[in-house]
Every structure is written in C-alpha cells, then in structure tokens.
Amino acid sequence: MILMRHGHKGSASNNYNLSAIGFQRAIALASVIPACYGTPSHIVTYFLDPETSKNARSYQTAVPLAVASCSVSAGWSADKKV
User: Mean pLDDT over residues 51-75, rounded?
Assistant: First the structure.
C-alpha cells in the first residue's frame, strides 16, 4: 500500500488544481511507482466534486498513474465530506 498526498497546489487560495510543478511530479510518479513497486492493482482518490472542483489535486495526482497502469481498477471515496 502506498499513500500519496497531492502535489503542489496553485497560488490562489480558492484554486483546487495542481500547480504546473505538481502536475509534472504526478506525471513523473506515473513511471516511478510502477518501476519501484510494480503496477498498482487499485488507485483510490477523494471524491472530485464536479461543481466546485474540490479535491481536484488528489484526483489530478492519481490520474497519470491510472493512465500509465491502464489495467488498474480506479475509483474514489464516496465520502463527499472529505
């Protein structure tokens, strides 16, 4: 089990997206994690609120790894209060 925190956030306090550096790190992790630990069998992230984009950084950090590991079962937490 690997627990990851989202990458760098943008400078605006109301912006839930990764910064450019955070997204670059998420892309790099997509190749580093499988090389070091093997292909993950599951990737879980917090619920991405489509109206407010809350928890977007968590989701944006996980997506490159999920794409690189295309046979992975991906999902998110059903708890919208996260």
Answer: 81
| Chain-centroid distance, C-alpha 39 | 15
Q: Where are the beta strands (DSSP E) in 1-82?
A: 42-45, 73-76
Residue 33's Cα: distance from chain center in Å?
13
Measured in degrees and rounded to the nearest 5, phi and psi for residue 62 equal -85, -30
CA angle 41, 51, 57 (to 5 degrees): 45
CA 45 to chain CA mean position, Å = 6
SS3 state of residue 16: coil
Distance between start and end Cα atoms, the chain: 20
What would the pLDDT profile of 18-53 be if each residue is shown by its tens digit? 888 999 999 999 999 999 999 888 888 888 888 888
